[in-house]
Write a structure and sequence with these properties.
It is built from 4 helices and 6 strands. The chain has about 150 residues and is an alpha+beta fold.
């Protein structure tokens, strides 16, 4: 297994730090990046150094704008189906994306997580439960991106 240096945004509050810690505990070195977003802004919470190098020339904000469509599709699926929409999983050739949303009456926050595609069968249901449990403990607003952060 390869050891990677990591970059953490300085000054993460308790809720965001707990989120990153829970994802690191669940995914280990396979965790590539963690972002939170609302309808207007985003904030990186964790970025592995090799991933940071790869995305230097990528318009991350444009990419995350695409993930914001999940705010709408989540509502659509919840209206169309008898069960609640919980998460999205997408597979790419070298990595996988996991996205879930936490919401309460006042806030909606998307959590976007990248993991290595190495044949591991990730339990995205359990990751969703962990994210939602933390949102219940700290409050959804604790995951909201800081206004002055961004890609």
């Amino acid at each position: 297994m390869t050891t990677h240096d990591t970059q953490f945004e300085s000054g993460l509050d308790d809720g965001k730090a707990a989120l990153v810690d829970a994802l690191r505990d669940a995914l280990g070195e396979n965790l590539r990046d963690v972002w939170v977003l609302d309808q207007q802004t985003q904030q990186p919470l964790y970025l592995r150094e090799d991933v940071a190098d790869r995305i230097e020339d990528v318009d991350v904000e444009r990419y995350l704008d695409n993930e914001r469509y999940g705010f709408v599709t989540r509502q659509t699926y919840n209206r169309l189906h008898y069960s609640e929409f919980r998460y999205t999983h997408r597979g790419f050739d070298t990595w996988e994306l996991f996205r879930t949303f936490v919401a309460d009456d006042d806030a909606q926050v998307g959590v976007v997580v990248g993991v290595d595609a190495d044949g591991t069968n990730y339990d995205f249901g359990a990751l969703t439960d962990a994210v939602h449990d933390l949102a219940g403990e700290y409050g959804v607003a604790a995951f909201a991106p800081a206004a002055d952060e961004g890609a």
